[in-house]
Amino acid sequence: xxxxxxxxxxxLVERARGLAARGGRxxxxxxxxxxxxxSTIAAAVAAGVGDAAVLVPMDGFHxxxxxxxxxxxxxxxxxxxxxxxxxxxxxxxxLRANAEPVVYAPDFRREIEEPIAGAIAVPxxxxxxxxxxxxxxxxxxxxxxxxxxxxxxxxVDLEAGTRVERLVARHVAFGKAPAAARAWVQRSDEANAxxxxxxxxxxxxxxRLDGR
Length: 212
What we know:
This protein is of the alpha/beta class. Helix content is 35%, strand content 21%. The chain has helices at 9-20, 38-49, 65-71, 85-97, 160-173, 178-194, and strands at 5-6, 26-31, 53-55, 102-109, 114-123, 128-133, 152-157, 205-208. A hairpin with a 4-residue loop joins strand 4 and strand 5. Helix 5 (160-173) packs across helix 6 (178-194). The longest helix is centred in the last third of the chain and has 17 residues, at 178-194.
């Protein structure tokens, strides 16, 4: 089956509004490799839908720095096993059930590189939950439970060279020296991107905003 391609933000917002109009609680997942633009697109889509939507990033389930150090995974932060995948899936189940007056979700603060519990309120009145992250479509034992919890999934694609330069600039902006930032991207972020090969087949929509 060919995955439909959407190539402009207004079309994405319009599709999200259609999901919000279904009635009941709907969960839209936006996946893709590091630096592809998932966070920017998810924020713009949620804003375009308005008060009926809330953005809940997967990154809120990063393991804490101290935990990563204790597990010997700090130098691989961002890899699939540096997240609480089961906790993320459990939150998605609560959000789908929509049985509580409000559900509080964690967020991730890049300036301190730590998750913050209870930072995002999702009241029962919200009809569209937008969630984004690298591993929403990853088919491994830890992450496979996530895909069935998404009513629709988008895969964001971006030309690799542009992605890498975006990632380097992001790491520099948050304090890494340029050489260290590039080394981290090549060693860690691109290794994580390689893990996502083949996940497009599990998406409903391919998002490609770079004109290709």
